[in-house]
Amino acid sequence: MAPLIVINVVGLTPRLLAHMPNVANAGAAATLRPVLPAVTCSMQATLLTGRMPRDHGIVGNGWYFRDLGEVLLWRQHNALIQGDQLWSAVPGLRTANVCWWYAMGAATDLLVTPRPIYHADGRKSPDCYTRPPSLHDDLEAALGPFPLFSYWGPNAGIASSEWIVAAARRILARERPDLLLVYVPHLDYDLQRYGPAGPEAIAAARAVDAALAPLLAEEAEVVVLSEYGITPASRPVDINRALRAAGLLEVYTQAGMEYLDPWTSRAFAVADHQVAHVYVRDPADLDRARAVVAELAGVDEVLDQAGKAKYGLDHERAGELVAVAEPDAWFTYYYWLSDDRAPDFARLVDIHRKPGYDPAELFMDPGDPFVKLRATAALARKKLGFRYAMRVVPLDPAPVRGSHGRLPDLPDDGPLIIGPFDRDSYEASEVRDLLAGLARRSR
């Protein structure tokens, strides 16, 4: 029987589908109602478990790990997802995962997931983790090295997607899995950078559609879905700076740079696009923290325990409060009050040290006339084997033009699912059983 291929096209919406004829021909399109927050890790966990964040525990792309005293984003261990996942729903299913998240340690037979190398001398190189290990050498020999999910350059993002599609097709041909999951990231970049309505978004949609054409043409049952839609947003909300000004957030200083101090802070926020988890150490400070956040321009809701329960977000990993931005706003992670006190990682692409998501990483600093020369010099040092720092990210978030995370106000701005379905809309929590039924049929 034909295998089941599930292609996750991040940022795909009904509006963009009009520019993607290959994807549109994959089947009937239905609205997909996401969970809050509508971000990658939370949505993928719901799609794979059929549960809400209150049950699977993935409350965002990252959160404050209270037992460690650290904010950690983009962890990769599958055990962070609580509950059975799609591949356990059909006994004996042979599965392959190409770049869906929380992949490491998952009970899949074949696996490719981003895993950069952090060299002992401080250099960083793009690479991936595979299972079985021999798959790494096979893919590299056939397709070249795994390309970093890159932000800059006219072809940077699509190069990643093209490699992923080629890897998926090679695995399909050589291994014949019953279920193949494929994650395609390209739309995420230009839609946040330029907004979802401009010519850049249309060009990105067409590029992804062309890249997917060979995979869509395989002899298989195909489902295309997305996690969220990106909507216009141009108002940054400095939630941590407000908490600091109110005396609730603490920092410590090293080498003249300020770092968030979660151990002593009475309240601080983990910013995640249009949602921010606010962690409040002492219940006596809840009302004060809520008032500070609620008074900020650009904040739509501040959810307490009852509010979190309403959205299925009442898990112990969530903040004591959860802030939701207005439709055209999003949350910064910034906590310093003067840019000359910003930590060195603020000017880098550094998704693991920043205590929150930073879409400014999508840009080379437009206020620096020498930024491209600096980047070129840094790349030259890297190629020569020297340590380097790509200090090119702006500290001004004004260029950002798109975001996501809140629930969509209009179906055309939200995610969708395309395949052999007969309804107009589905909840994200229904997808696991839909896919399990298709997988059984394809065996």
Automatic annotation (TrEMBL):
Coiled coil: none annotated. It comes from the Bacteria. Gene3D superfamilies: Alkaline Phosphatase, subunit A, Domain 2, Phosphonoacetate Hydrolase. It comes from Nonomuraea bangladeshensis. This is Nucleotide pyrophosphatase/phosphodiesterase family protein.
